Amino acid sequence: QVQLVESGGGLVQAGGSLRLSCATSERTFGAYAMGWFRQAPGKEREFVAAISWSGGRTYDADSVKGRFTISRDNAKNMVYLQMNSLKPEDTAVYYCAAGVARAGFQFPSQSEYRYWGQGTQVTVSS
Questions:
Q1: What is the distance between the alpha carbons of residues 38 and 107, in angstroms, rounded to a whole number?
Q2: Residue 116 and residue 84: Cα distance in Å, rounded?
Q3: CA 52 to CA 50: how far, in whole Å?
């Protein structure tokens, strides 16, 4: 069982920045693709960003392109989401997720990710 713990959420004004972190004690962290998803009130959970097991490939939702950056540090078993130029519509609970690496991994697909964190709230005020 892979345990994921998110941190770094909070309240920020529009145009501001936050950095989310996701920590795991999983020894084989480098064998997992990592993703960030979010769920706003009354909406379904949606893909935000993902990164391959080595960190060599990243994927972003169109809504966050140019504003959010996903990264990972396999030596520290950490994955990050740097969020800049935040907008009120970015308000949501943000979830970190891990999926076992495999050929043909569909990074934006929630069904690929077996393990999920408890979520961290991000609120952007206008």
A1: 15
A2: 24
A3: 7
Tally of residues, the chain: 126
Q: How many Cα atoms sit within 13 Å of 17 on the Cβ side?
A: 8
Query: Residues 6 or more apart from 1 whose CB is under 8 A from it?
Result: 115
pLDDT tens figures, 83-117: 999 999 999 999 999 999 999 999 999 999 999 99
**CA–CA gap between residue 119 and residue 37 (Å, rounded):** 9
Tokens read off for 72: 């990972």
E strand intervals along the chain: 5-7, 10-13, 18-23, 32-39, 46-51, 58-60, 68-73, 78-83, 92-100, 115-116, 120-125
